[in-house]
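Chapter summary example: a protein plus zinc ion.
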Amino acid sequence: MLAFTFVTQVATAQEKEKIQELETQKELRQARQVNARLDSAVRFLDDGEYEQADARFRYVFANMKSIPSDLAYHFGKNSYHLGKYKQSVDWLTKYIQLKGTSGQFSKDAAAWLKKAEEALVVQRQSESAKVAQVLSRDYTIDCGPSAKVVCPVCNGSTVVVRKDYFGDKYSTCTYCNKLGYLSCDDYNKLLRGQLKPSTENK
Ligand SMILES: [Zn+2]
């Protein structure tokens, strides 16, 4: 009886291992598929096929757990070409927040962001485009290996300046805990409006 139990336990362990292995393989296959889609999205963007690129970017969004910063740049640029300027500003701003001035696409991102912001002003005045937009706050952003982002509330200064009737008022940033940066987790919460300011510094 004891020996029998032992055998079934071994068998279950082996089965579990097998299932685990199959799941890992499936995940790898999916990851490869998503990456292939991302590559082709960027190619379509470069070729000026923005709708085609958009469809592939959306597939990637739906199937990737964490959005890499380069995707924020490419999608922001593609959104500009589709006339979705709010969406474009949103993602390009995200890229610049994540990469600062040292990213591979930082210069280009800043240039496209400027164009998108200008176009957005014009678009808002005309109130013509009421299209549904894909916004970054709906996704988890991958902050890269450092897993830190310069606090967008105080721009890393840890001090927030508020202008009021009596002039400038300085107060300690209540989001980054006097650090000037946010953990990736908090950054993603901030994007969703879920990061609560701390009250102790008030
Ligand atoms: Zn801050």
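Key point: The longest helix spans residues 2-46.
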